[in-house]
Each structure stands twice: as C-alpha cells, then as structure tokens.
C-alpha cells in the first residue's frame, strides 16, 4: 500500500501516519511518501519504507504560505519533482490501497499534485482502495467554510472509497467540524485515537516540583517558550521549581540560541531541542505545559499527569482550542488562552496546576490497530468484488 503524508508546520501528522503505517505493515508492504522536512531524530518504524519527497514547508504557522525547503530549488521545480516521484511510486508499488492523510479536508494547496495523483491511481487496473485519513477535529473558522466543505465533499465523492476518522466518537465526531451541503458518499469509520503506544508509562513523582514545557515540532511555540523562560526565572526558580523546555526540531535556530542565552546561569532551567519519549518525560514531571495538538493531547492522557495547555489559536486556528475545551470539561487539563499568556499568568497557572487531581479517562486508544483492520477489510471487499466481475 502507498501512504501520502504532508506536514508543513509541525510533526503531528507524520508521527500519526508512521504509527498507522507500522500497524499496516503487518499485512501490507507499506511505502510512506512524506512531503515535509523529516528531522533525523525521528525514528521510522520497522517494516515501513519512507520515501522523502522534495520537501515543502510553511513560512508561517498556518501552512498558508508554502516555500521550498530544498536548497537551490524554487517552489515550482520542487512541485515538478514531487509529481514525478509520486507517479513513479504508483507505477512501481501498484498499491491495492492508497491512504491520503488529511486531504481533502485540509492540504488544499496540495490539490495541484494530489488531484492528478488520485486520477492516475483511479486509472490503474484494478484501482486501489482509496482512503482519506483524518484526525479528530478540523479547523472550521474560515469565512467561506461551507464552500470549502462542499469542495472537499466533491473530492471525496469522486476519488475516495472511505474516510477513517482517528478519534473516539465519544469525544468528537466528524460532523461537528465538517458540514457540507452535499451528501458524502464514502463510508465513514472511527478508528479510535492513534498513539505511538497504548502503553501507559509509570507515573514517577519527582522529589521536587518539575515542569516540562513543550510545543510539538516547535515552529509556533516561540511565545510559550519565551513566557516560560521568564516565568521560571522570575517566579518559579525562587520557589524551588525545576523547568525543562523542549523546543522541538522546527523552532528557529536563532530563537533557540536566545532561549539558551536567557537560561544561562540558572541551574534549575534546562533548554533541550528534542525529546524522543515525550510521554515518558511527561509522566516524570510534576506538571506538563504544552499546546494542544492531537499527539500532545494523547500523550497527556496516557501520562496521567497534571497538565496545563495553551492551545495555539492564532489566525483563526480553532482545532486546538476545541480540543482543549473538551479535555478541560472532562478535567484532563487546565487551559490558558494565548491572548492571556504572560510570564505572570503562566507561572500562576503552573502553580495552580501542581495540585490538580488527574481523572482516569477511558478513551479508545487503539486507533492504529483498528485502522489496519478497516483498511484490510476494505481491500478484501474490493478484491471479492473485482473477482466476482471476472
């Protein structure tokens, strides 16, 4: 099978896709075409072949302005090279299943390569089962949201056989953030949440208060990190609190240097770029402070740690705020808005979260295995149908 994933801002889409691909590799040869920058620290699971497309990224935190990440290649040349790679992969892999991550619900700027790709896949004999893989919550704040949803529905009806929503429907359902006026034909399946491991790490309580600050890949984490460093030096350090800031691999190198300089001379403040076992690190902290992306939220749930979230909500991004509100209602997190973020409010919220009692939640975390089962069943159904026509 062939799996297309494009991440332009953070790492969440790729991390989730690799977890699903690993589960799929038990029954398929799995080739993942990845279209964003892949940090060397990120491990590719065994049994998964990762093909790096010429990389495209975003110059902002919204994915609205795309740029080439390939030295010496302009964006148009990168588009051309990517299309050639995708066409070659289709011809070489001859997939029985094709999974497209997020499109057509998002990644609209990538329609220029995905529509021809899907057209070419549909012309194969037999054509692969084509699945749209989508997270729990979509951004739905655009002024022309109904028009965008209708356009997505048209793509779904033309190119896709099924939609797999990687969520527990008791937490969120697709129709809450996707409301086209056109009926959607592909079948809709809920897989449960996708986690890198359903194992819950042991909850380790440090002898002195420890705070872990993170923001996914880090590209849009600057305001949180700067507030955290100042909050620690002014308010938390005098209270004997230790703070570790994990900037993520995509935070601008100059900002990392500035944070390191601000932390210099403070023995209780640590700046690190990457944490490969974030959930385990959370479970070893007294409080975790983060944004509220899909993977981070699930790490919080698995770690069972007192958690403060500052959901990224700039420029109409509604997804993280929606998720944070749902989790706060269930008592899983406390929430502080970006508009209210200052060193003073952050330190006060951290101190308030130290005494938080974490509830036991029972969300379905078996999304990887269930996705593999759904795709396998869809392929079997397609195979039986093709054989019956011959």
Description:
This protein has about 400 residues and is α/β, with parallel strands linked by helices. Helices cover about 35% and strands about 15% of the residues. The protein has a 7-stranded parallel sheet with strand order 3-2-1-6-7-8-9, with helices on both faces. The chain has a 6-stranded parallel sheet with strand order 12-11-10-13-14-15, with helices on both faces. Strands 4-5 form a two-stranded antiparallel sheet. Helix 5 (about 220-235) links the parallel strand 10 (about 210-215) and strand 11 (about 240-245).
* CATH structural architecture of the largest domain: 3-Layer(aba) Sandwich
Number of domains: 2
Helix share of residues? 25-40%
* Strand order of the biggest β-sheet: 3-2-1-6-7-8-9
On the 0 to 100 scale, the average pLDDT is 94
The assigned structural class equals alpha/beta
What proportion of the residues form beta strands (DSSP E)? 15-25%
What is the CATH homology-level superfamily of the largest domain?
Glycogen Phosphorylase B
- Give the count of helical stretches: 11
Shape: globular
User: Biggest β-sheet, characterized?
Assistant: 7 strands, parallel
């Amino acid at each position: 099978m062939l799996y297309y994933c494009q991440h332009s801002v953070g790492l969440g889409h790729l991390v989730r896709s690799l977890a699903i691909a690993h589960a799929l590799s038990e029954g398929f040869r799995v080739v993942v075409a990845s279209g964003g920058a892949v940090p060397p620290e990120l491990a590719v699971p065994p049994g998964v072949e990762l093909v790096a497309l010429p990389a495209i990224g975003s110059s902002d935190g919204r994915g609205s302005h795309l740029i080439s990440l390939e030295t010496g290649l302009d964006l148009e040349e990168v588009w051309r090279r990517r299309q050639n790679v995708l066409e070659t992969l289709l011809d070489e892999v001859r997939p029985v299943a094709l999974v497209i991550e997020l499109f057509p619900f998002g990644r609209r700027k990538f329609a220029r390569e995905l529509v021809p790709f899907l057209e070419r896949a549909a012309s194969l004999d037999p054509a692969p089962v084509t699945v749209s893989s989508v997270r729990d919550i979509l951004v739905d704040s655009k002024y022309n949201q109904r028009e965008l949803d209708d356009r997505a529905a048209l793509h779904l009806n033309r190119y896709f056989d099924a939609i797999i929503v990687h969520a527990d429907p008791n937490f969120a359902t697709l129709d809450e953030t996707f409301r086209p006026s056109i009926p959607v034909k592909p079948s809709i399946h809920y897989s449960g949440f996708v986690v890198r491991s359903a194992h819950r790490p042991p909850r380790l309580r440090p002898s002195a208060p420890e705070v872990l600050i993170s923001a996914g890949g880090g590209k849009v984490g600057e305001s949180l990190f700067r507030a955290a460093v100042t909050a620690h030096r002014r308010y938390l350090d005098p209270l004997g609190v230790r703070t570790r800031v994990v900037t993520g691999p995509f935070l601008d190198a100059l900002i990392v240097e500035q944070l390191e300089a601000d932390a210099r001379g403070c023995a209780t403040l640590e700046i690190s770029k990457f944490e490969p076992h974030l959930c385990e690190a959370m479970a070893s902290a007294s409080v975790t402070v983060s944004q509220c992306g899909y993977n981070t939220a699930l790490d919080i749930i698995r770690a069972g740690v007192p958690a403060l979230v500052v959901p990224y909500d700039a420029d109409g991004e509604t997804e993280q705020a929606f998720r944070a509100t749902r989790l706060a209602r269930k008592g899983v997190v406390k929430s502080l808005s970006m508009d209210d973020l200052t060193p003073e409010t952050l330190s006060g919220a951290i101190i308030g979260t130290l005494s938080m009692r974490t509830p036991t939640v029972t969300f379905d975390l078996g999304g990887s295995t269930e996705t593999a089962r759904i795709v396998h069943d869809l392929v079997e159904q397609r195979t039986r149908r093709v054989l019956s026509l011959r």
